[in-house]
Amino acid sequence: MESVEKTAAAGPAPVIVAIDGPSGTGKSSTSKAVAAQLGLSYLDTGAQYRAITWWMVHTGIDLTDPSAIAAAAGKPEIVSGTDPSAPTITVDGTDVAGPIRTGEVTSKVSAVSAVPEVRARITELQRSIAAAAQDGIVVEGRDIGTTVLPDADLKIFLTASPEARAARRSGELKGADVSATREALIKRDAADSSRKTSPLAKAGDAVEVDTTELTLQQVIECVVTLVEEKRAGK
Ligand code: DC
């Protein structure tokens, strides 16, 4: 009896939600909003790969040499703040939220994130953050459902047509050329999908949501409903 009361007072059990998909599918906006609405933590794993890439560029590591990338992979301290209303990312104490979004980092992040030692390091960090999230967490990335958290309670794979993804990304980049953005995005997705170690992929048990014709609000509502159904045991 006592344990039943304790369970009821403790609220819903922590829920782990993995949201994967290529860039421009609305992963970040959706993941943050779903986490905020449901009182969960939020982790942007792309920001971690961008942060380690930023550090390597900043430190002068030769990014054409995978062994140099591998040797440096354990050096920087990367810390992610998981409040969905104000996520943060620091490298050795420096706030890099702005610098990790530059074109230079974006063009180099696929090469850095393909190196197995980098993935092992960042994956371990991601698992420890998810394990520490007491109320549960929404983790977004490319390999969360397949590799990082294969036992996640709910796995979502977001997709959208290349045109829709390029249009959204150019909007975010404040009017960048749509066709150039489309080419860069297709190139990055191809690199992320074809690498040997934990490529961008849909887990067999993930729910696929095609966001091409949906507004952001509709995608958020769809994912919130899926989490609530999961929590209700449906
Ligand atoms: O989501 P994003 O565009 O900020 O991600 C940046 C890059 O990081 C992306 O091109 C591939 C890599 N990435 C990854 O390899 N695995 C993840 N779980 C998340 C991102």
UniProtKB/TrEMBL annotation:
<dbReference type="GO" id="GO:0005829">
    <property type="term" value="C:cytosol"/>
</dbReference>
<dbReference type="InterPro" id="IPR011994">
    <property type="entry name" value="Cytidylate_kinase_dom"/>
</dbReference>
<protein>
    <recommendedName>
        <fullName>Cytidylate kinase</fullName>
        <ecNumber>2.7.4.25</ecNumber>
    </recommendedName>
</protein>
<feature type="binding site">
    <location>
        <begin position="21"/>
        <end position="29"/>
    </location>
    <ligand>
        <name>ATP</name>
    </ligand>
</feature>
<feature type="domain" description="Cytidylate kinase">
    <location>
        <begin position="17"/>
        <end position="228"/>
    </location>
</feature>
<keyword id="KW-0547">Nucleotide-binding</keyword>
<dbReference type="GO" id="GO:0036430">
    <property type="term" value="F:CMP kinase activity"/>
</dbReference>
<dbReference type="GO" id="GO:0015949">
    <property type="term" value="P:nucleobase-containing small molecule interconversion"/>
</dbReference>
<comment type="similarity">
    <text>Belongs to the cytidylate kinase family. Type 1 subfamily.</text>
</comment>
<dbReference type="Pfam" id="PF02224">
    <property type="entry name" value="Cytidylate_kin"/>
</dbReference>
<keyword id="KW-0418">Kinase</keyword>
<dbReference type="InterPro" id="IPR027417">
    <property type="entry name" value="P-loop_NTPase"/>
</dbReference>
<keyword id="KW-0963">Cytoplasm</keyword>
<keyword id="KW-0808">Transferase</keyword>
<dbReference type="GO" id="GO:0005524">
    <property type="term" value="F:ATP binding"/>
</dbReference>
<dbReference type="GO" id="GO:0006220">
    <property type="term" value="P:pyrimidine nucleotide metabolic process"/>
</dbReference>
<dbReference type="GO" id="GO:0036431">
    <property type="term" value="F:dCMP kinase activity"/>
</dbReference>
<dbReference type="InterPro" id="IPR003136">
    <property type="entry name" value="Cytidylate_kin"/>
</dbReference>
<keyword id="KW-0067">ATP-binding</keyword>
